[in-house]
Amino acid sequence: MRQQGLDLSQAQPVEAWEKAHQICLQRMDALMREQVSIVLDDTNNLRWLRDRFRHLAQQHQYHVMIIFLDIPLVELEKRREHVFLSRERNFLPDEVFYAVVEHFEKPDKDEQVFMFDGTVGMNEWVEKNLV
Known about the structure:
Blueprint: H1 14-33, H2 47-59, E1 66-69, H3 73-86, H4 94-103, E2 113-116, H5 122-129
Parallel strand pairs: 1-2
Helix pairs in contact: 1-2
């Protein structure tokens, strides 16, 4: 989205998101043809978006796992406040943030999901789940 010159602190049209998604899929396809390991850092708030990436990975016989950061809304709101005050990165307006929260589809167990909820330290969680 940034490469398209769009401001992510503002709501963007669905068409712009779709274009960015297609570019990402094309880039991932090219990397998979070269057998490069990929980490996709994205909200992927809807199942059908995750399914697109999963389908591409299956075509290339890639193993897929989801690391879902299950952070309580209260904590997310604290973090948003910190970002707003510190200006360390883009701040999502309430209408954008809460629209994503409202429509967010948590990953299902069939998606091979590893859930991090913050109840243990990150290093301990990584050691237990990913190493």
